[in-house]
Specification:
Two copies of one chain form a homodimer. Chain A is an alpha+beta fold and about 220 residues long. Chain A contains ten helices and four strands, in the order βαβαββαααααααα. Chain A has two domains: about 1-80, Glutaredoxin (3-Layer(aba) Sandwich); about 95-215, Glutathione S-transferase Yfyf (Class Pi), Chain A, domain 2, CATH 1.20.1050. Helix content of chain A is about 50%, strand content about 10%. In chain A, strand 3 (about 60) and strand 4 form a beta hairpin. The interface of A and B includes residues 62 and 72 of A.
Chain lengths: ~220, ~220
């Protein structure tokens, strides 16, 4: 089954990493994949465009089925391989509701992280304002404090919606990314605990961004958040 | 069942409208609800904060279950009431993949629309740049052209993932909103057809934003997109 899958990915991209974690959790090792370079703009290549008209990574194909958006791909994989590997959507309605809620909030968390970490990349020099970056940082602080609150019971092994779920598949790469860019372990102890508990989970370890081994730390964009 | 549900909503908000369409489609009429005013900042009231710590609408509760993010609420409702009302997630893996893909792309479409329609609201006066608004409009044009392409077979009644689905629940309010802000019917004929076919669907008609009856048109923010 995995042999008819093809993933084009970029190292360190949280959306790509989500799909890779889901593939590991669903025991779909052996899928075909190709690492492309954002720096060389390989995500804009014909090879990508044929799968993803947005020229973005991940670009993911399973046989004739194309599903590129990372949450969509994870939902597809879980529903298609329900009884294989980890169960990523809980059965209980209350847990399911919480899982969907955190998963979707994770999508918005990505945008808020990017608005700080990639501010200079996203905004042309003549349009940059210290006041705008400051506001983005404040919004991110408020956001991260919410997540800190969501993880009150993390030390007891309760992740974003109880046992490991799609919510963690979607959100963990964001949190790893935040600590890579020097988020304070002291100010966010629950998030730090969450990170330290999950970083050695087999699916996450197996898909750890290759680029991060060479350069384990990013710049200090999130130091004062 | 519907009687134990409470929806706090704002008129004309696409995320609120999504949940209302889903409730209609799942035959959950009779749910409790309360219309709040964004202008009077009622979304920041204690009543909202008790359900939604983000101080955003929708705020939705079903018994003790809280699920506020609009896609999460729609996924919850469809899965909880699978055999009731319309079937909003197709069974076939290929159609399901397409449905999740379009649904999630719809989330990003909302952001792109807001970055143009609400530019002045989102960006303080001293940080506004014509070049930034122009870039946002160009990105929105590219985005809307993709959606125009997704709807090649709309005249034959094929919506975003074939029959009416969660993808349409999520995306239709964005499209209605775009035409309200004077998106060109000539430049986007498939989107216009999609709009005209779905606007009289019972679930959509029953949940049509009350505010829009009084002021059927917004400003012309999208006239030249």
């Amino acid at each position: 089954m995995a042999k008819s899958m093809m993933l084009l990915w970029g190292s360190g991209s949280p959306p790509c990493w989500r799909v890779m974690i889901a593939l590991e959790e669903k025991k779909l090792q052996g899928y075909k994949h190709k690492l492309l370079s954002f720096e060389k703009e390989e995500h804009k290549s014909q090879e990508v465009l044929e799968i993803n008209p947005r020229a973005q990574l991940p670009a993911f194909k399973h046989g004739d089925i194309i599903v590129n958006e990372s949450c969509a791909a994870c939902l597809y994989l879980e529903n298609r391989f329900k009884s294989q590997g980890s169960k990523l959507i809980p059965d209980s309605p209350a847990k399911q509701a919480l899982m969907y809620q955190r998963m979707m909030e994770g999508v918005h968390l990505t945008d808020k992280l990017n608005s700080v970490v990639y501010y200079d990349y996203l905004v042309p020099e003549e349009e940059r304002h210290d006041s705008a970056l400051k506001r983005n940082k404040e919004a991110l602080t408020t956001e991260l404090q919410l997540w800190e609150g969501y993880l009150q019971n993390v030390a007891a092994g309760s992740y974003l919606a109880g046992p490991f779920s799609l919510a963690d598949v979607i959100v963990f790469p964001n949190i790893a990314y935040a600590f890579r860019f020097k988020l304070s372990v002291e100010r966010y102890p629950k998030l730090a605990k969450y990170y330290s508990l999950l970083k050695d989970r087999p699916s996450i370890k197996a898909s750890w961004p290759s680029q991060w081994f060479a350069t384990p730390q990013g710049d200090d964009a999130l130091k004062d958040v």
